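Hello forum,

I keep getting stuck at the same step: I have a sequence, I want structure tokens, and every attempt I make locally crashes halfway through. Rather than fight my setup again tonight, could one of you with a working pipeline run this one for me? It's a single chain of 274 residues.
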Amino acid sequence: EKGVLLELKGKGCRQFESYLLAQERSWYEFFMDVLMEDGVMKRLDLAINDKTGILNIPHLTEKCRNEECISVFRSFKSYRSGELVRRGEKECMGNTLYIGSLQSEVYFCIYEKDYEQYKKHDIPIADAEVKNRFEIRLKNERADNAVYDLVSNENPEQTAFGIINRYVRFVDKESGKSREEWPLNPMWETFIGKHRNTLKLTTAPEPYTLERTLNWFSHQVAPTAKMLLLIDEKCGTSHVKDILDNTELRDKHRKIIQQKMRTVLEMIQMEDNE
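Reply #2:
Ran it on my machine without issues. Output:
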């Protein structure tokens, strides 16, 4: 009666692409199917990966402070987080810049993806495939409009940079000229298109993995489980075994077991037969 809410975060999108690939469908076709069913887009994030380090986030932040960011937005927020890491000869922290209010239906988040990967997965900064990420975060009507544009034109570059250019541009202050006449900053000009390769909607399907569950088990459960097993061993008891023997699996747990035993294509064929 209330309908269905489908929420896909980053890893969820990558796993869902395995289904799309097996079904020989694209994101455009999926979005079109959703729209045909009168689906409503509550949120859409478009992420642009900067793999060569075009964007300098501390520099962009400084430009915001110096009024060299010409924008429809009235606010920006920046912060540095996490532990110190070494970049070359200098120690620094991860930098994030928000442009626009987080409560509005559209705002931008620019952050150092290489640092995030170091912090989350201990991947060395120098080995990170993506240096920075520029995220366009859209809600409600703005998300709906972006999906319509994507489906209509199948041109993610036009959609993404059309939104960015509508809301913000970074310039270099030049004396004797009005703020609106200040020239575009070369770094920003490169990012939005000059001497840059064409932006494409890319997919990188990933199968479901137990990584998240194992990570949670390792940090939250394993120390306590090891303690209880050692107590059982020393005291000649079997508390842990008794608990496991009497534990009933829920449907979601059985589903995960089934998923690990089947390929994506087999699951799609099974669902089609049902």
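The chain is about 45% helix and 20% strand. If your local run keeps crashing, start a new thread with the error log.
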